[in-house]
Design brief:
The chain is an alpha+beta fold. Among the domains are: 178 residues, Aldehyde oxidase/xanthine dehydrogenase, molybdopterin binding domain (Aldehyde Oxidoreductase, domain 4, 2-Layer Sandwich); 181 residues, Aldehyde Oxidoreductase, domain 3 (Alpha-Beta Complex); 200 residues, Aldehyde Oxidoreductase, domain 4. 25% of the residues lie in helices and 24% in strands. The protein contains 19 helices and 29 strands. The strands form seven sheets. Strands 4-8-2-15-12-13-14 form a seven-stranded mixed sheet, with helices on both faces. The chain has a five-stranded mixed sheet with strand order 1-22-21-20-26. The chain has a five-stranded mixed sheet with strand order 10-18-17-16-11. Helix 10 packs parallel to helix 18 and helix 13 runs parallel beside helix 14. The protein starts with 10 loop residues before the first strand and ends in a 5-residue tail after the last helix.
């Protein structure tokens, strides 16, 4: 029998008194205490009687023909129940993918990147499974590797995917280009003639890992009806389902998925990892199979942020107005498409930034290479572009002798601005105001490491390594602002579903909210309860575990869940409220005329008129009755960008954040300490102010990470990952975390539920270029790549 944790315990989010904890209040997370005390059950904690352990054998080379696979010794290992290769897959559907189904379940014929899955093992102990996998003999014939644009698009380039035939292949200049999106508006060449200054820049953005703390894991349990129950940490249950079922040869209703505890995501769980593999092993052995990646394997088991090369040109008149912009963005998508086409769309359509530029010439492409696959990560294409265009804004301001913030404000977009795609911005765009606010914040004191009791080395570059005591340390201040779209774009049918039930349990009205939303740490379980309390006037709300027994909620990504699934919960609650009032009219209308005539509301467990007159207790109305509604909710439609001009209403909403970074740099040792990262952000409406601050601070720190330390290093000759561990892939810790004051602006978007605006991604954009700007300000160096390393600051970096 399964541990109860495998099915997910419903979150009971009762508050202490009636209707407290509604929209606009800082309610605490129901899972917060469990997480900080170590008692929360993550997917890696699941257990089942008679459970087997799965292990994946991965390629040791990046590009090679598979000559042979010998599984005999592995199969003969005591305790091994199954060994599977490509030839053991049960159906003709052997590939999967978010948009382009180009990713093989197990490698066939060749491997295309370091760490690609080749074979599976199920055994009665995880160490047995690991040892058996190591006994599988794979003979490779290595092939040349494609690692950059030059090798990918050369006339004689080896094709990463031979015989490619997908809906993007017809409009790309080379089969090793996944997708290309130009955007042309006005006449950039003619506008350049009017410019008094022109600045250019070439920028390099490193490959960042999502680095979630909970590695990929899940449990597949074979069912008596021939199906399978899968408990897994993911971002998008229904997308997983649509990819898994065809490979297993099962109808979707026989692949039942339940969200297990998720230890962070940031885009890295949008693609499949171990889901199909665990199900295949469970169905083959007839036993539950659990797979848990170790940290080394996790670096190979999910996509990363696209590294990028960006070339920008901007011009401006001597009075500070930007005349034009030209740019070319090359994103390395790695061996498989994943979300690369959508990342290209975001990078191109947001490449101008939050500025008014009428004449643009933009091109963005994503490549197929033999580097690790890249896909969704917080900020999704807009992060790379923001790094480049914000550096350009500083260059332009400096060339004109203008204040860098005032120059941005002079060119800032506002509501009504026309985007380069021809789409008008039809909600508040307070870019200039956000910049004003962060510039007005008081700066942190100088030389904070000095005190009457001596130096506090924690405040110095190098920190507790005690490498400096202030000599050679200089301060720098930098600013940046960014724009990020909210929700899925380019004609994607972006919707969510919510089921809300209201009834009396033990003498108290209770609402239950059931969605397929993946709670990955963003706080949706709190917001959904707040919406239900606000709309239904109940104190007790239970959040049902997310599963595929309710309609899709889409992905927990693109800052969309509060907007879309929150909108679905709100709509469902409104319909439930109407049904409850219909019951009240039926039961009590005969002796209280207000039931039939007044606008009725549910507040604090009572039915009241709009004038505040109490008509009935909800318990009396609902006793013996239950109301349930399942409702889909869609935001306004979008449309694809034209493949020639890039014109089209591709996005539904935009979010904006601005940062001011204060850094201290030891110019002799090349060490950086980020002292402060102040942020101002428009959130439309803060549904849960405490959660809003947490999202902004988390996104800010993730942006700082790619600025000064985070990068997956791939060998340019072999395309092998050099640093797949938290020993060598550096992450910010609490000792690296600066002060992050946040100024929240609430300018409602009339098109969105409660006027809200997506929050989580925007601060990841502008924090990175703000830190780089501050380091440039401190050192006078150009610094056109991320992350900045000590050798870049001391002049010892190799060409």
């Amino acid at each position: 029998m399964a541990d109860t944790r495998t099915t997910g315990i419903p979150f009971n989010v009762t508050q202490g008194s009636h209707t407290k904890g509604g929209i606009g209040e800082s309610t605490l997370r129901p899972d917060g205490t469990l997480k900080v005390t170590g008692e929360f059950a993550y997917s890696s904690d699941m257990w089942h009687e008679d459970m087997l352990w799965g292990q994946i054998l991965r390629s040791t080379v990046a590009h090679a023909e598979i000559v042979s696979i010998d599984t005999g010794e592995a199969l003969a290992t005591p305790g091994v129940y199954a060994v599977l290769t490509y030839d053991d897959l049960p159906t003709d559907v052997k590939n999967y993918g978010l948009e382009i189904q180009d990713t093989p379940v197990l490698a066939h014929g060749k491997v295309r990147h370091h760490g690609e899955p080749v074979a599976l093992v199920a055994a009665d102990h995880p160490e047995t499974a690991r040892r058996a996998a190591a006994k599988i003999k794979v003979e490779y014939r290595e092939l040349p590797v494609i690692t950059d644009e030059a090798s990918a698009t050369a006339p004689d380039a080896i094709l990463v995917h031979e015989g490619r035939d997908d809906h993007h292949s017809g409009h790309v200049p080379h089969p090793n280009v996944v997708h290309r999106q130009p955007i042309v508006r006005g006449d950039a060449a003619a506008a350049a003639e009017r410019a008094d200054v022109i600045v250019t820049g070439d920028y390099t953005f490193g490959m960042q890992d999502q680095a979630f703390l909970g590695p990929e894991s899940g449990l597949a349990v074979p069912a008596e009806d021939g199906g399978v129950d899968l408990y897994v940490a993911t971002q998008w249950l229904h997308s997983d389902l649509k990819q898994i079922a065809p490979v297993l040869g099962l109808p979707e209703d026989k692949v039942r998925m339940t969200l297990a505890g998720v230890g962070g995501a940031f885009g890295g769980r949008e693609d499949l990892s171990m889901q199909i593999h665990a199900c295949l092993l469970a169905l083959r052995t007839g036993k539950p199979v659990k797979i848990v990646y170790n940290r080394f394997e996790s670096f190979f088991g999910h996509v990363h942020r696209h590294p990028a090369k960006l070339h920008y040109e901007h011009g401006a008149t001597k009075d500070g107005k930007i005349t034009h912009m030209k740019c070319r963005i090359v994103l390395d998508g790695g061996a498989y498409a994943s979300a690369s086409p959508a990342v290209v769309g975001n990078a191109s359509s947001l490449s101008v930034g939050p500025y008014v530029i009428d004449d643009v010439d933009i091109e963005a492409v994503a490549l197929y290479t033999n580097n690790p696959p890249c896909g969704a990560m917080r900020g999704f294409g807009a992060v790379q572009a923001c790094f480049a265009y914000e550096a350009q804004m500083d260059k332009l301001a400096d060339a004109l002798g203008m204040d860098r913030v005032e120059f941005r404000q002079l060119n800032a977009m506002e509501q009504g601005t026309i985007m380069p795609t021809g789409q008008p911005v039809d909600s508040p765009a307070p870019v200039a105001e956000l910049l004003r606010r962060i510039k007005a914040m008081p700066l942190p004191p100088e030389r904070q490491w000095e005190s009457s009791e001596g130096s506090d080395v924690r405040q110095l570059p190098g920190g507790l390594s005690n490498t400096t005591h202030g000599e050679g340390v200089v301060r720098g201040v930098g600013y940046a602002v960014g724009i990020k779209n909210v929700g899925f774009s380019e004609g994607f049918d972006d919707y969510s579903t919510a089921r809300v039930r209201m009834e009396v349990i033990n003498g108290e009205p209770v609402a239950t909210v059931h969605t397929a939303m993946a709670e990955v740490g963003q706080g949706g379980v709190t917001v959904h309860a707040q919406i239900a309390r606000t709309e239904l006037g109940v104190a007790q709300v239970t959040i049902h575990p997310a599963d595929t027994q309710v309609g899709s909620a889409g992905s927990t990504s693109a800052s969309r869940q509060t907007y879309v699934t929150g909108g679905a919960v709100k709509n469902a609650c409104e319909l439930v409220r109407e049904k409850v009032l219909e019951i009240g009219r039926r039961k009590m209308g005969s002796y209280h005329p207000s039931w039939a005539t007044a606008e009725l509301l549910l507040e604090s467990g009572k039915v009241v008129t709009d004038g505040g007159e109490v008509l009935a207790d909800l318990v009396d109305v609902l006793e013996g009755e239950a109301v349930e509604v399942e409702e889909e909710w869609r935001h306004r439609p979008t449309e694809p960008f034209d493949l020639r001009t890039g014109q089209g209403n591709g996005h539904v909403q935009y979010s904006f954040a601005a940062h001011r970074a204060v850094v201290e740099v030891d110019t002799e040792l090349g060490l950086v300490k980020v002292i402060e990262l102040a942020c101002a952000q428009d959130v439309g409406k803060a549904l849960n102010p405490l959660s809003v601050i947490g999202q902004i601070q988390g996104g800010t720190l993730q942006g700082m990470g790619i600025a000064v330390m985070e990068e997956i290093v791939v060998d340019p000759v072999t395309a092998k990952v050099r640093n797949p561990s938290f020993t060598d892939y550096l992450l910010p810790t609490i000792l690296d975390t600066p002060t992050i004051p946040v100024d929240v602006l609430e300018l409602a978007d009339e098109h969105a539920p409660y006027g809200l605006r997506g929050i989580g991604e925007a601060p990841t954009l502008s924090s990175t270029p703000a830190v780089l700007a501050a380091i440039r300000n401190a050192t006078g160096l150009e610094l056109n790549r991320t992350p900045v390393r000590p050798e870049h600051l001391t002049g010892t970096a190799s060409a």
